[in-house]
Amino acid sequence: MPKDPRTAFGVCGASAGPIWKGTFDSWMTGGSGAGQLRTDYPWPPASITNAPALPTALPVYTSAGSVSTLPVPTYTNRAGKPVVSGNGWFNAQDNAPAPTPISGCVYPNPWDAQNLPVPSGCTAPI
Q1: What is the pTM of this model?
Q2: Element (H, E) at 100
Q3: How far apart are CA 9 and CA 92, in angstroms?
Q4: By three-state DSSP, how is residue 63 classified?
């Protein structure tokens, strides 16, 4: 393995994909176009290929849940005193409710819903 893995392109067999030239597009680094939403891929889409219904009829979640935070590690300094390492939430200003299932909606198994009917009562947040 070379010291610079970027020089190993194609060494381990057939490689697909573009070769990185060592530069980024301007929008990737805060330049022209950064922070602009693309309009060529609207959300939600007007249709989804092979979906059993229009996107507006597919199950959604509602934004009414509690924000989940991860437990933070505990540290001690050399004197054995605890070191404050936060509370598991980086941005205290980010307090929007979390997505949660709509009450009364019976959601299909997300990993095995092939050919199942689209459930009702799952499209409008309550």
Answers
A1: 0.52
A2: strand 98-100
A3: 43
A4: strand
